[in-house]
Every structure is written in structure tokens, then in C-alpha cells.
Amino acid sequence: MLIGQELCKALFNDEYQYVLAVHCDHEHIHNHIIVNNVNFYTGKTFETEHNQGKIPDRAWSKLRMISDELCRKHGLSIIENPHLSKGKSHWEWELDKQNLSWKEQLKRTIDEVIKGSEDFEDFLAKCADFGILVDYNPDHKIDLKFMLAEQKERNPRAKFTRAKTLGYFYESQQIRRRIESYKYQMSHRPTARIIRTTAEKFQQSQGLQNWADRENMKAASKALNEMNASNSTLEELESAAHRAFAEFMVMSTPQIELSDRIHELEKQIPAIEEYRKYKVYYKTYSSLEGKAKKKYGENCRYELDQYHECRKKLKELFPDGIIPKIKDLQDELKKAREDYAKMSAERKALKKEADRLSRLAQQKRDSQRTLARYMQNEQAAKRKKSQLE
Fold it and tell me: Where are the domains of the chain?
């Protein structure tokens, strides 16, 4: 109840009537809030005061931010990186507990298709083999949708699920990147060739046999050295490579958001400077009267027109009407650029580490194959020799 009250106070600022109810009818205790939509001071609706402008879901973003702060304050858990995954209904959550969530099945199946695909077109073709229906139209804004064939059979009216609904990593562009990542990690590296000495020509020539044995021993020795170069197992290397790449991908979203904010600030700062520049003319114009005002208006028409254009632009950039100080924006822009550069360096390091681990894993995988072929050849040669004797 206390956390709910703190949340309502921070969100509604004692300007809206609300009823707060604490429910414990499920495993988790939770709040239900019913709000009077009208501000009892201004008479305006909640949407008018808090959900206007071009930023989508402004009030709900603020609600989540306040909720997260309160949860941290009271030692409760929060959802980290909510932008990387879509939420689920309580019904889906219950199914997920029973390993029956269709959305989870769909995601896991898509993961398997990605691992075995050569490119995005191959991925689309292979989805049918794994029981996934795909609706892909690159010309549409919502370009990719999925559905389990089994789901369609059970419910002919079932609708396709947007890739974005499944989460960031299931959008078309991210699927392409994931396929390339798997291809790079599993790419073929020429391995040492083990010479099969069971062929007739080796039995007939001792010199040829000795040469083949020496070459095979060299290859086996090299493979053994490569395997011992890393103390990690193949599974550990592959797991570490995937983790590094996943971190690299996760950082892309906040970096994109930071880039968007930088571009926003780069528009806002000069817009405020322009507004201040022409505001002087409007102030002078407003202070005059009669003929003097009319004459000044004619002489400074361009400047006054520019003032109104700048004012209009500021309303678009700051829909809440609050214009920050230029110094604050400049400081924020400086920090944002520094953070972006730091984030770029971190992502570059993560990508480099993921590539290094991928190469080590591939090297170990190839070395294991070489040693296995060497042992098979040795055993086959011994059997052949015993048969001849």
C-alpha cells in the first residue's frame, strides 16, 4: 500500500482523484489504481496534460520510471532492458510456467532455424520445415510476422504475431545479423588432412607408407598443440562467444537511443539560440504603440516573421512548454557524445572478443576432428596389417 501511495503521489501530484486497492489473490501482491481522468484544478483530462506531443506513451514511460525507482528504493526487483522484449499477458505467463507458451515455442523454434540458415532467404524457406508460417513483406512498415502451423490448425482464426512483439532479436534486421554471426562462428577453416594409409598403394610401398605416417603425425601433433593452447573446453568457448556477441547486440539499443538523443539536442540548441536572437525584435515591437509600432513592424518584418517561426519550432521541440537552459543542454550534449564514444569503444571490444572466442572455438573443433580422423586411420591401419599377417 505504501509503495502504491508513493507512486500515485509522484505520478498524479495530488491533482487527480484515485482509488488504490491492494490485491493478494495471486502469488504476488499487487496494486490496482482507478483514476478520475479529470484534473480537479485545471479541469483538463489526464491525456491532455500528460500524453500530448510526439513522444509515444509519455505517461506510461513516466509511470514505469517512477515504479522502477520505488522498487529499487524498497529493494524489489525490476525488469532490466524492457525495450528488448515485449511483455506478456497473465494468461501467457501462466502457460509459460507450464512450458506451454506458444510465443516461447515460436521464439525457440525460430532460434533453431536461424542456427541452420545460410542467409535470410534460406531462413524464410526453412521456417516451413520447422512448422512456422511466415508473412514477410519488405515494403511494409511491419515487414515480418510469424505463426506456428500448429496454432493455425487449432484455431483457423489465429492471427500472425509481429516479429517486434517477440522481441528485438526477432526483427528482420536482427535475424540477418544473427545468421551472419552463426555463419562466422561456424565458418569452415581448412583443417589438417589425415592421409588414409589403408589404400593398396601404401601397402605396396614402404617409403610411401613412412612418408604418410610422418605427415599424419605432424598433423596430429599440431592439432594436439592447438587443443592445449586454450584451457577452456569447446562448449565453454562457444558459450563465451555467444555471451560476448549477445552483450554486443544488447548494447546496440541504448546506443541507438543515445544517438537519437544527440541528434535531438543538436536540433534543440540552435533552435533556442535562434529564438533568443529574434525575440529581441518581438520584445521591442510589443513595447511600441501606434505609428511607431507599425513602422517598426514594416522595417523588421523579416525578423518578426523569423521570431514566430522559431517560436513555432520550439513548441514542436518542447511540447510541454518548458524550455531548458542552453547551458544545461550543452552540458548534456557533451556528456552524451562522450558516453556514445565510450559505448562505441565497449561494443568494438566486445565484438573483437566475440570474434576471438569464435576463432578459438573453431580451431578447437577442427583440431578435435583432425585427431579423431588420425585415430580412426591408425586403428584401420592396424586392422589391415593384422589381416595381411
Answer: 2-79, 91-185, 194-389
